[in-house]
């Protein structure tokens, strides 16, 4: 009897271990491709930004809006997932790779610049948008005119994002870098005078400037090129190819341009030409 009970316990432990290995905790945990998971479950979990006006924002009434949100939904639709079966999760810049690797999300659409360091951990589809790094300052500031004028200035960037270090290494070696957890914290510091400038991609900063025209202004001197991609599980080539097809379709049918005009047009942001897909 005792031996039989031990066998039963052992079988139960083995079953639990197998269930965990097969992804019982969420769609991203299984060994299946994104395409197969979406087909099987008719659901997706997507990492997005909650605090970027015009791109990815969670509104006070709990809705999600912006260009990145539209892209995320379009891709989900092409994967066969209804909008009501999308779960959006907040993806802080420093946590995006972890969320993908751990299977907490199926893919990330959150102003996610494609670079070699990130590609060591995740795969990318796209790009679906190309922008460049710029600076946001207080509306009454006149002495910050570009990245080379930041020596001795307190410069804010978000943890896990790429821009601030480039300024220090290439333009203003004496800039005082301040890393915060989110853009809203940087904006609060900038508004209070604790910080002198915020750096990230111009398309992100344009949204903040449009939302607070009496507080902030965009310097308007772009000095890098940033290609936004959609991050997914490393090695999921089938998922990558499916997302690329969705991006190309969104561009071809006019939904890409319409979304940009809706969400970024009011900020006076010049809509660029659509990018060519390079992550194949």
Give the helix/strand layout:
Layout: H1 2-21, H2 34-41, E1 44-48, E2 51-52, E3 56-58, E4 64-65, H3 67-78, E5 86-90, H4 96-101, E6 107-108, H5 116-119, E7 122-131, E8 133-138, E9 154-158, H6 163-170, E10 176-180, H7 183-192, E11 197-201, H8 202-211, E12 216-218, E13 226-233, H9 237-252, H10 255-263
Helix pairs in contact: 3-9
Family: Belongs to the bacterial solute-binding protein 3 family.
InterPro entries: Bact_solute-bind_prot3, SBP_3_CS, Solute-binding_3/MltF_N
Pfam families: SBP_bac_3 (PF00497)
Task: Trace the largest sheet across and list its strands.
Answer: 5-1-6-13-7
For this structure, what is the CATH homologous superfamily of the largest domain?
Answer: Periplasmic binding protein-like II
Please report the number of helical segments: 10
Can you give the helix content as a percent range?
25-40%
Distance between the termini: 58 Å
Q: What structural category characterises the helix and strand content?
A: alpha/beta
């Amino acid at each position: 009897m005792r031996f039989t009970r031990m066998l039963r316990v052992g079988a139960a432990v083995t079953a639990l271990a197998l269930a965990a290995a097969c992804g019982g905790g969420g769609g991203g945990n299984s060994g299946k491709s994104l395409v197969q998971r979406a087909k099987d479950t008719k659901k997706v979990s997507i990492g997005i930004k909650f605090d970027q006006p015009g791109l990815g924002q969670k509104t006070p009434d709990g809705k999600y809006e912006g260009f990145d949100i539209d892209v995320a939904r379009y891709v989900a639709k092409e994967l066969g997932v209804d909008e009501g079966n999308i779960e959006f999760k907040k993806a802080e810049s420093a946590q995006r790779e972890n969320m993908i690797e751990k299977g907490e999300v199926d893919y990330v659409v959150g102003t996610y610049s494609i670079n070699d360091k990130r590609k060591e951990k995740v795969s990318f589809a796209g790009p679906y948008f190309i922008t460049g790094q710029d600076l946001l300052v207080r509306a009454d500031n006149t002495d910050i005119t570009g990245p080379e004028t930041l020596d001795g200035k307190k410069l804010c960037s978000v943890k896990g994002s790429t821009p601030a270090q480039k300024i220090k290494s290439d333009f203003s070696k004496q800039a005082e870098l301040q890393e915060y957890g989110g853009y809203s914290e940087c904006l609060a510091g900038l508004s209070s005078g604790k910080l002198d400038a915020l750096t990230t991609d111009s398309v992100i900063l344009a949204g903040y400037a449009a939302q607070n025209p009496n507080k902030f202004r965009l310097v308007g001197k772009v000095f890098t090129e940033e290609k936004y991609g959609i991050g997914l599980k490393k090695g999921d080539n089938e998922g990558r190819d499916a997302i690329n097809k969705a991006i190309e379709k969104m561009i071809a049918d006019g939904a890409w341009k319409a979304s940009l005009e809706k969400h970024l047009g009011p900020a006076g942001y010049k809509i660029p030409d659509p990018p060519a897909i390079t992550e194949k």
